[in-house]
Amino acid sequence: MDKQQLVETAQALVANTKGILAADESGGTIKRRFDSINVESTEENRRDYREMLFRTVGASEYISGVILFDETIRQNGADGTPLVKVLENQGIIPGIKVDKGTQALPGAPDELVTEGLDGLRDRLNEYYELGARFTKWRAVISIGDDIPSNYCVAANAHALARFAALSQEAGLVPIVEPEVLRDGDHSIEDCFEASEFTLHEVYRQLVEQKVFLEGTLLKPSMIITGGSASDRAKPQEVAKQSIDCFKRSVPAAVTGLVFLSGGEADDSVTSNLNAINQRAAEEGAPWELSFSFGRSLQGEPLKAWAGKSENLELATNAFYNRAMLTSAARQGKGV
Ligand code: 13P
Question: Active site residue: 219, 264, 288, 300, which one?
């Protein structure tokens, strides 16, 4: 394992003004996104949309890396340039989602387990050859009556650690994503408790499976009130609960936390990220606190694009603007 290379990649991904664009929607998810703008999800439309994002002039001021889906890492742009090359030419690091999505966890109604370990070693070697330098695996943890269960958390944490160890062996920085879903009307304290419990098990497994923590990033959910609760915590409270929770559960050796946006409204996501970084600057925190957003970076440009080539400029402007606002929040300099 080339530890130095892993640390350098991890640090570059959370460089001080920058964060990650998650553009790794699977076939079903990108279809849902395209349905929302009445665009058919064809291979060419997916390529055109993602190529538009990747070619946005100036994106690399704010975007350090992009997480790709298997289809995209193999695709060429309209002029024949591989999309991986388009990113490299921008100074953006290509990454790849390597899990194969969630399935029902046997014997645990309402809980899910992420699949994709079979054949992963070979796939990782191929992705490295194709230009990827980091990977992502998403586990999903739901909050509800008597869940998350020990069983669900242990099964998912075990898979996350296997994925992380195999990624590092292949020279790839793993982004470890135990997403605690916002769905439900739970309190912010419930989110804190489920996240702390999950993260303790995730890091227990990572250490047991000999993962080099400095060469990893964590992709957590912010500690927030459930999405359908009536009285939702404000950014200052989100910041306090988030930093308290991560200080209890994420080793200081981890290079950075890159939050997911999780379906929260764009304004709320950036306000929360901003408050988290302001609080971290005041009280000190051992890791970089950045972003790895899908929806919150893509919602506006997707709407502006609407599947029409004449909207390219509108859409790239919308993406650049969201990236700029998110970068400001990542530095605690947002509004
Ligand atoms: P969202 O920011 O839309 O939650 O997506 C991030 C992601 O990659 C989830 O795996």
Answer: 219
